[in-house]
From TrEMBL:
Gene3D superfamilies: B-lactam Antibiotic, Isopenicillin N Synthase, Chain (2.60.120.330). One of its GO terms (molecular function) is gibberellin 3-beta-dioxygenase activity. It is an enzyme of class 1 (oxidoreductase). GO terms for biological process: gibberellin biosynthetic process. SUPFAM superfamilies: Clavaminate synthase-like. This is gibberellin 3beta-dioxygenase. It comes from Arachis hypogaea (Peanut). The keyword Cytoplasm does not apply.
Length: 356
């Protein structure tokens, strides 16, 4: 079975991680990091320290209690209208978030020289560096990222602290992702018998995943800087833990950028491009971005969840009919990641079959 690590071989990216700055030593924003007119372009107030100023107080990302018997229905509604929601009562202990954050912080506080020992190679997925999407923008982003695919020990042997918190975190996320997948699929009327690649018990045994540990250092000029530029995830779904520093925003059609405030113990669930394809376009993959602030470092962990690497994701037959043709052609995750590396935010339209 081809592994995820092979996805980018065809489209190597030369992001020049060696030029990654020691963010904490800078008193001024270098020109290469200065994004001009972030706000004007989007018609929103974007200071993440003052989310109440963002004009969208009445438009909040739905918060769903996973113990609510009505959860699948609420999730379906959130997926259709937002493409994102937060979950509480998901069963993951707070101590695991504390532990992964501690491990992540230990990694980010290594010297640049040390971190670069684990630098991502141009054609690889795992390792330390800038966000891959950097190559699509003229300016640099105020963030750094460790991407972990498959065994963390393989790649981080030089830096990794001797504990298995990443493995525990991935196991907990995998279980939650399975549960969420069935809640979302149920909301579309798809049963376990109707999704063969999920396995006989619908356990998604061979699902693939990756982890992004993201750090957004405090920034001397946050109004002109961008933590992570607008993008959709190439996943089925993404489970995001964020520390108590705001900055994440999602684009709501007809409204603008809406802040997703950190919720103690809550997790943000983004629908990704592959779920958009599977749902035959009925559940949008949400465009999101991250802004930075002057005083506090933001930390997040994104668990990127996708299908087994040999599975073609296609619009589900139940969601196709005489008046609803299949909107996308079948793609594997690897193939789609290659498409994304080439076309970025136009990747979905590049696998589209007919105009909506
Ligand atoms: O840091 C965040 O809140 C978002 C991270 C993200 O979008 C990603 O890793 O794809
Ligand atoms: Fe993302």
């Amino acid at each position: 079975m081809p592994s995820l690590s092979e996805a980018f071989r065809e489209y190597p990216l030369h992001l020049n991680h060696n030029k990654l700055l020691d963010f904490n030593s800078l008193q001024e924003l270098p020109d290469s990091y200065a994004w001009i007119q972030i706000d004007q372009e989007d018609h929103t107030i974007t200071n993440p320290n003052f989310p109440s100023n963002s004009c969208h107080g009445d438009e909040n990302v739905p918060i769903i209690n996973l113990n609510d018997p009505n959860a699948p229905k609420l999730i379906g509604n959130a997926c259709k209208t937002w493409g994102v929601f937060q979950v509480v009562n998901h069963g993951i202990p707070m101590s695991l978030f504390r532990d992964i954050q501690q491990t992540g912080q230990a990694l980010f506080s290594c010297s640049t020289h040390q971190k670069l020992k684990a630098a991502r190679t141009p054609d690889g997925v795992s390792g330390y560096g800038r966000a891959r999407i950097s190559s699509f923008f003229p300016k640099l982003m105020w963030s750094e990222c460790f991407t972990i695919v498959e065994s963390p020990l393989e790649h981080f042997i030089q830096l990794w602290p001797h504990d298995d918190v990443v493995v525990q975190y991935e196991e907990a996320m995998k279980k939650l992702a399975q549960k969420l997948m069935w809640m979302v699929l149920t909301s579309l009327g798809i049963s376990k018998e109707e999704l063969k690649w999920a396995g006989p018990k619908g356990e998604f045994k061979w699902a693939c995943s990756a982890l992004h540990l993201n750090s957004y250092p405090s920034c001397p000029d946050p109004d002109r800087a961008m933590g992570l530029a607008p993008h959709t995830d190439s996943t089925l779904l993404t489970i995001l833990y964020q520390n108590d520093v705001s900055g994440l925003q999602v684009l709501r059609e007809g409204v603008g950028w809406v802040a997703v405030p950190p919720l103690p113990g809550g997790l943000v669930i983004n629908m990704g491009d592959l779920f958009h394809i599977l749902s035959n376009g009925s559940y949008p993959s949400v465009l999101h971005r991250v802004l930075v602030n002057r005083t506090r470092q933001r930390f997040s962990v994104a668990y990127l969840y996708g299908p087994p690497s040999n599975v073609h994701i296609r619009p589900h037959p139940k969601l196709i009919g005489p008046n609803r043709p299949a909107l996308y052609r079948p793609v594997t995750w690897n193939e789609y990641l290659g498409t994304k590396a080439k076309y970025f935010n136009k990747a979905l339209s590049s696998v589209q079959l007919c105009a909506t």
